[in-house]
Amino acid sequence: MRRPALYSSSRPARIAAPTAPEAPTSSPDTVAAQAAAPPLRKRLAAAGPRLQWMAIVLLGFALAASLALHPSQRRLTQEDINAAVLKTMETKVMPSEYARAYENVRPSVVRVISYVKKSRLREEDQKLLAKMPRGAKPKPLGPAPSDPAGDGDGDEVENGVGTGVVIVDKGVILTNLHVVNGADRVKVIFFDGLEAQATITGVQAENDMAVLQASKIPDDLIAATMRSTNDLAPGDKVMAVGFPFGIGPSASAGVVSGLGRVFRSPEGKTEMKNLIQFDAAANPGNSGGPLVTMDGEVVGIVTAILNPTSARTFIGIGFAVPIENAASAAGLPPF
User: Fold this and answer.
1) What span, in angstroms and rounded, lies between the C-alpha atoms of 47 and 115?
2) Which of 147, 208, 257, 279 is an active site residue?
3) How confident is the model at residue 143 (pLDDT cuts 50, 70, 90)?
């Protein structure tokens, strides 16, 4: 790059007629000062403007390197931190709060499958099962003990599919009682694909809750974090995670629609009280799954949907058992 012209600050002398050169004269003080001048100054003075500017640039680089090697000489200010955060937010796509909540609870969500023996099916159910094409027969997701070939022709058939959430990292799982009620065998599938048999260790019929204990667990199993519903309010964002219609794990987002609701099952046999009403989509298969906050903390267990028709599909109103009530089924103390 072309350098700008350098100008001296002194005024130019007038042009005079050429005369014979005279020998330079110096006073004794001047001679003494020049003799005492440092050698570097003499060399820079004699080097000319170009080398002087190069020396200045080199000194600048040396100073910058010194600051880099000694960062403690300059402390970070709040303005520096704010600028770095803003820069990160401008240049990187941050995950949504729903995505963060899902990632927090996902390792604790399990699929729950219950099986019953064919001999226990009602006569009309057995006839219907016999008429179904081979490929359409309900069958276990894995070989049943009486069906080592896994072709669905054993003594067991799939009776229900739901969701569960691990609340103790030793394999203690909460789910809905109606998912496992009357089952001859229960199987759970963890987030990493591990399958394990599970036993029912506790029930709480008034809240449609069941407690399962898995026979084996993943090495890195993480229990969900539970949060009190004392400060939960209508309008708070929540997310339901589960296996609707066996698909999943799936997440659906919504808000708390109300608190302290009462729900009676379509059969009219059980009335459930003090429920959380929410509008995050839930369908058969979501039963027993967690209802979580944007921190991924469990505030309820999805248990029912309201549909005034005979269809078992979601129309905007779902119910969850508050986690305080649900966890008490496992003997865990309230918050």
Assistant:
1) 95
2) 208
3) very low
Q: Per this entry, what is the length of the chain?
A: 335
Residue 86: per-residue pLDDT = 81
Active site residue 178: yes
| pLDDT-based confidence at residue 94 (cuts at 50, 70, 90) | confident
Q: What is the pLDDT of residues 241-262, one digit of tens each?
A: 999 999 989 999 999 999 999 9
Q: Is 219 a catalytic residue?
A: no
In angstroms, rounded to a whole number, what is the distance separating the alpha carbons of residues 290 and 300? 6
Spatial neighbors of 202 by CB under 8 A, at least 6 apart, are 210, 211, 329, 330, 331
Residue-wise pLDDT for 149-183, tens only, equals 344 445 888 888 999 999 999 999 999 999 999 89
List Cβ neighbours of 144 (8 Å cut-off, separation of 6 or more): 115, 150, 154, 155, 156, 185
**Are domains 103-214 and 237-328 of this chain identical in fold?**
yes
Every domain of the chain and the residues it spans: 41-94, 103-214, 237-328
CATH topology classification for 103-214: Thrombin, subunit H (2.40.10)
Give all strands (DSSP E) within 190-249, no chain letters.
195-204, 209-214, 237-242
In angstroms, rounded to a whole number, what is the distance separating the alpha carbons of residues 321 and 210? 12
Q: Kindly name the residue from 178, 252, 257, 279 that is annotated as catalytic.
A: 178
Q: How far apart are CA 173 and CA 157, in angstroms?
A: 23
Please give the average per-residue pLDDT across 119-125, as a whole number: 60
- Tell me how far apart the alpha carbons of residues 177 and 164 are, in angstroms, rounded to a whole number: 11
Phi first, then psi: what are they for 68, rounded to 5°?
Answer: -65, -35
pLDDT value of position 197: 97
- What dotted CATH number matches 237-328? 2.40.10.10
Query: Is 208 one of the annotated active-site residues of the chain?
Result: yes
